[in-house]
Amino acid sequence: MPIACFCIVDPKDEIRFIDYYIKSSDQYLLKFQAFASLQYILPLLQKRLNGQTADPYLGYMNSVYLPDYEYDVYGYVTVSQYKFILFVIQSEKSEKMNMQSTFEQLYNGFKACNYNPFGKSDLQKYLKPIIKNFND
């Protein structure tokens, strides 16, 4: 179940980073689906706040059916209200994945890049090995 797309959305709901890890005509549609997935995040956050849990991992949010593949959409929200959205290609094998640790690794890469006091770094450079490790 490889990761097809990773997207970071800022607190104002604007896409700050999007990268595709597949060669497919679905790439253009995944950007639209990233915006559409935002409608699932707020209700999930409200449920978590009502339950008094502070876990940033939202888990599985929905499925998306596009011309080339079917995708499962997973979410994660940081303390600073950045939203991480992963599109994972569905497969016939039901593999148990630890998506939460993958999101934590991606968040650590995001922090290492954006909160570097010595200048801006290439976010893609930090995230690519994490995605490659997941997809292998």
Summarize the biggest pleated sheet.
Answer: 5 strands, antiparallel
Distance between the termini: 9 Å
Low-confidence stretches: none
- The share of residues in helices is 25-40%
Description:
The protein has a five-stranded antiparallel sheet, sandwiched between helices. It has three helices and five strands. It starts with a strand and ends with a helix. Helix 2 runs antiparallel to helix 3. Strand 3 and strand 4 form a beta hairpin. The chain is globular, with a radius of gyration of 15 Å. By secondary structure, the protein is of the alpha+beta class. The protein has helices at residues 27-50, 99-114, 123-135, and strands spanning 3-9, 15-20, 57-65, 70-77, 83-89.
What are the main properties of this structure?
globular; 136 residues; alpha+beta; single chain; five-stranded antiparallel β-sheet
Indicate the topology.
Elements: E1 3-9, E2 15-20, H1 27-50, E3 57-65, E4 70-77, E5 83-89, H2 99-114, H3 123-135
Antiparallel strand pairs: 1-2, 1-5, 3-4, 4-5
